[in-house]
């Protein structure tokens, strides 16, 4: 058997339907394009109609399969209508990727109850709503993969991200709970925790006169990550290659949590560049 056929057998998503929330975001867009590129039929869900249209045009132009749906994860009716439409159009949902999320950077004492409720409603309760709507369909087929998009802030906090971090920590509990409860139906639940990823929304942080340097000093690779660098792990978790992986979290942070840039240490090996 050839290398190509072995890789296709392990990682191809041909014949799989992937429902993704937050598909019009910086990370979601790259994941949607990448998943379509390895054979998935992507059901791209978001509230941003214009960016969904642009995503659809790009994926179709590249020869991929995508359908776009308007979904507001804060509305039970919207979630149910969207999931029902995906089932009607594609007959199945093999993979669910919960990528919808928002943040507002401000100190813990500055957060209003309105802001708290808004972030919680999208980042955590939104995952609750969508997952509850999708899992019964997976149960009927006795298989499925759920991938929750967490954050560096699951564990490593930044000042001004208290509520966001709380939602992403809660997402880890959802991930473990799903792995335990749905294993008997052949449904696997895992998460990824991206580190400091460069997107249009985070560009301002990387361009900041002090925050950009602060981040680089704490990342072993000394650079931001890029959305497309998350794709390999997501393909692994969506594919049959990860058939014995569930309840796990995959940290994709360029070596931030492990220690970042080292202090001066004794060695005769120095890279001169």
Salient structural properties:
273 residues, 9 helices, 44% helix, Rossmann fold, alpha/beta, single chain, globular
Strand order of the largest sheet: 3-2-1-4-5-6-7
> Which spans of ≥5 residues are poorly predicted at pLDDT below 50?
none
Shape: globular
N/C terminus separation: 41 Å
- Counting DSSP H or I runs of 4 or more residues, the number of helices is 9
- Give the SSE string: HEHEHEHEHEHEHHHE
Tell me about the biggest sheet? Answer: 7 strands, parallel
- The fraction of residues assigned to DSSP E strands is 5-15%
User: Structural class, from helix and strand content?
Assistant: alpha/beta
- CATH C-level class is Alpha Beta
Question: Could you name the CATH homologous superfamily?
Answer: NAD(P)-binding Rossmann-like Domain
CATH architectural category: 3-Layer(aba) Sandwich
Number of strands: 7
Domain count: the total is 1
**Kindly state the mean pLDDT as a whole number?**
94
Radius of gyration: 19 Å
How much helix is in the residues? Answer: 40-55%
What is the fold-level CATH name, i.e. the topology?
Answer: Rossmann fold
Protein described:
The protein has helices spanning 3-11, 26-37, 49-61, 76-90, 113-141, 162-182, 203-207, 211-217, 231-238, and strands at 17-21, 41-46, 65-70, 95-98, 144-149, 187-194, 249-252. The protein is an alpha/beta fold and 273 residues long. It has a single domain, classed as NAD(P)-binding Rossmann-like Domain (Rossmann fold, 3-Layer(aba) Sandwich), CATH 3.40.50.720. Helix 6 links the parallel strand 5 and strand 6 (187-194). Helix 4 (76-90) runs parallel beside helix 5 and helix 5 packs parallel to helix 6. The longest helix is centred in the middle third of the chain and has 29 residues, at 113-141. It is globular, with a radius of gyration of 19 Å.
């Amino acid at each position: 058997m050839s290398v190509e056929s072995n890789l296709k057998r392990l990682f191809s998503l041909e014949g799989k339907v992937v429902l993704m929330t937050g598909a019009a975001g910086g990370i979601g867009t790259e994941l949607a394009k990448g998943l379509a590129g390895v054979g998935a039929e992507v059901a791209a869900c978001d509230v941003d109609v214009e960016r969904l249209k642009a995503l659809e045009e790009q994926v179709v132009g590249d020869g991929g399969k995508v359908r776009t749906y308007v979904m507001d994860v804060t509305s039970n009716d919207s979630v149910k209508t969207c999931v029902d439409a995906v089932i009607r159009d594609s007959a199945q949902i093999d993979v669910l990727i919960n990528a919808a999320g928002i943040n507002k950077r401000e100190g813990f004492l500055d957060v209003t109850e309105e802001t708290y409720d808004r972030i919680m409603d999208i980042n955590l309760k939104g995952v609750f709503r969508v997952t509850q709507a999708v899992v019964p369909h997976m149960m009927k087929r006795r298989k499925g993969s759920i991938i929750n998009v967490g954050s560096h802030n699951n564990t490593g906090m930044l000042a001004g991200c208290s509520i966001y971090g709380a939602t992403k920590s809660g997402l880890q509990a959802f991930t473990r709970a799903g792995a335990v409860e749905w294993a008997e139906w052949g449904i696997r639940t895992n998460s990824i925790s991206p580190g400091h990823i460069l997107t249009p929304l985070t560009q301002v942080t990387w361009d900041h006169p002090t925050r950009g340097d602060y981040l680089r000093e704490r990342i072993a690779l000394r650079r931001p990550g890029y959305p497309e660098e998350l794709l390999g792990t997501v393909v692994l978790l969506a594919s049959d290659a990860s058939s014995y992986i569930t309840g796990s979290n995959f940290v994709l942070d360029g070596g931030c949590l492990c220690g970042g840039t080292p202090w001066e240490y004794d060695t005769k090996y120095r890279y001169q560049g």
